[in-house]
Every structure is written in C-alpha cells, then in structure tokens.
C-alpha cells in the first residue's frame, strides 16, 4: 500500500470506518510513550525513530494532541518536532486529536496503531497527550509502555505514582543534562524498592535532542519483540554483544570509532571484575571492548595466555532462571551464580569446556 493510500485509509478509520477485515496482525511492536507535559515525548519519539532507521527498522508514529474545548481544533505540534522524518519512506507519521476522549489517547489511536502494524511497520509509537495521574489507557493496548519523566519534578513524581507511574515497562528520565537528575532517578528507585528486584522496570537516562542514551534504550526495545511474539515462553536467543579483550582502550578505540565508524555508546569500570569496558553500537547488537584494570583480573590473565582477541559471546534471554536450570541439569559448567555486569544487567558465564571452546555469557533481558 502506498503512503497516500495508507493515509486515506487512516482518515477513513478516524471517520468511523472499521479496520479492514483482511488486515494481517503484523509482527511489529506497539510502544506507548506517555508522561507529563514538557517531558520531551515527541523529541524522544523522534530520536528513537532516528536510531531505529539507522538499524534498518521501519517506524510509524501516532502522535496524539489535545483538542481545544473552546474551538474544537488541535495544534498538532508533533508535526513540527518530527519534521526531519517526513521525507523518509520508512517512516509514517499520523497526528491525531483527542476529540474529547479522556485517558491520553484519541478515539481511534489504537485502531490506527493496529493498522500500521498490520501494514508491516516494525515499530509503532503511540505518543499520548501530556498525561496526568489517571490518563493511563495506553497501557491496556500497547505491547510496552515507556513513562517519560524529567529532572526537577520533585513531588510531582509522588503525586502521579498511584496511576501513570504504575504502568511503566520502562522508565526514562529525559533531559538528563538538567539539574536534579540524581533526585529524579532516586525518586523512581525509591518507589520501585518495594517490588521484587526481578520485577522492577529498567530506568534509562536520555537526552533526546542529541541522542545520548537512545541506542541503549533501542537495544532493549529491539529485544522485546521475541517476548511479545512468543507468548508460549520458548527460549529465544539473541546476540547482545561480542566481548573483545584489548590491552588498551585508548589504542583500540580509534579503529572502531574512526575507521569502522561505530558509535561509542558507553564506558564504565566493573569493579568486581577489575575491567574497564567500552561499548560500541553494532546494529541491534554491540561490541564490548575489555581492558584489564588490574594485573590479576580475568581479562589480564586471558591476554597473557591468548593475547588480544575474542573473549566471549553474550546472548540475551527473557528467563535466565529457566535457562540456568536447563543448563545445569544437562551438566553444563556454569561459572558461579548470576552477577551484575556493565550496564547493570544480570548475567552468568558458561565455561568453554561445555560449549566447544567458546566462553558464553547469558544475560537476563531487563525489559520484562
């Protein structure tokens, strides 16, 4: 279906026509983006779209704007914030008005999202109006809901936690370059502390205007697809990253960033492993460069024994506990209990003796 035909069909649905009876269900994800006014939801949707398009994914956006009670009109300002995507054939943007509907959505928002998913879009973002405590309808219809907050909200987080704060599959603190970031993250963590750790949604920090933190968020969204489309719970194995041992990050990084053109998306030190880590984006996966931080670290010993090179392959699963039980019952040599690694993910290693000579890292998908 051409963009023109799709737009005409969307208009018909907005005017009360039902979805086509022959419409495929589609395999895309419907992602809700909600949060208070001024959180940067439109800018974040645009940044997510840019990153997904870089990875070859197609995106449709349903942007909901409030209808004026005085005139019945709507500004549809999201068209302005996302105008750099309008010429992209892999992106379809539909701005709609609430037309008096409550709950943060328009009357036909979800029908349009299902239309776009059925037309084959990989991701469909539904951006709600600036939502308050009880405007949480998106959670009932989306495959995952992103709640976007900003530093400086203070007691506002507490004020809305009985509603919108309880529907998040992922929390995002946008505009993370503003003062009050630590307080905002702390407020969310304090609210989540009463829940079991394995049930706590992840918290991401982003700056939508320059793309900071967006690749890491997209990594999680991409890995959501098997969970949504595999409700039976069969184990889905996805490559999260490839670990490469290097003697010096400073000497190795220019090859990846300057010659290969990869984007550096994060650096940190994992203290309990005595290793410095640099993460580079590689499509839906990543390259992890590992530099020893101490002479007795496992990476230092690896370099002494084998020299620089492939250290491990990391796979992501939705249910690490079940996978571990299956591995252990089959006699695989698992190296210790699950631990927290770079980026805060939960992981275990499987010894090369069990896997034909390759060290495997198995990571729990945090967006569950």
Describe the SSE topology.
Blueprint: H1 3-14, E1 29-34, H2 41-54, E2 59-65, H3 78-81, E3 91-97, H4 109-118, E4 123-127, E5 144-149, H5 155-160, E6 170-173, H6 181-192, E7 203-205, H7 214-228, E8 238-245, H8 249-259, E9 263-270, E10 275-282, E11 285-292, H9 298-306, E12 309-317, H10 320-329, E13 334-340, E14 346-350, E15 360-364
Parallel strand pairs: 1-4, 1-5, 2-3, 2-4, 5-6, 6-7, 8-11, 12-15
Antiparallel strand pairs: 8-12, 9-10, 10-11, 13-14, 14-15
Structure, described:
This protein is an alpha/beta fold. It has two domains: 3-228, P-loop containing nucleotide triphosphate hydrolases (Rossmann fold, 3-Layer(aba) Sandwich); 238-364, 2,3-Dihydroxybiphenyl 1,2-Dioxygenase, domain 1 (Roll), CATH 3.10.180.10. The chain contains ten helices and 15 strands. The strands form two sheets. It has an eight-stranded mixed beta sheet, with helices on both faces. Strands 3-2-4-1-5-6-7 form a seven-stranded parallel beta sheet, sandwiched between helices. The radius of gyration is 22 Å and the shape is globular.
CATH architecture of the largest domain: 3-Layer(aba) Sandwich
Q: Indicate the low-confidence ranges by residue numbers.
A: 68-74, 100-104
Percent of sequence in beta strands: 25-35%
Total domains: 2
Instruction: Report the principal-axis shape.
Output: globular
Mean pLDDT equals 82
Main sheet specs = 8 strands, mixed
Helical content band: 25-40%
Order of helices and strands: HEHEHEHEEHEHEHEHEEEHEHEEE
Q: How do the strands of the widest beta sheet line up side by side?
A: 9-10-11-8-12-15-14-13
- Under CATH at level 1, the class of the largest domain stands as Alpha Beta
CATH topology of the largest domain: Rossmann fold
Number of helices: 10
Rounded to the nearest angstrom, the distance between the terminal CA atoms is 34 Å
- Per DSSP E runs of 2 or more residues, the count of β-strands stands at 15
- CATH superfamily of the largest domain, called what? P-loop containing nucleotide triphosphate hydrolases
Judged by helices, strands and strand pairing, the structural class is alpha/beta
Report Rg.
Answer: 22 Å
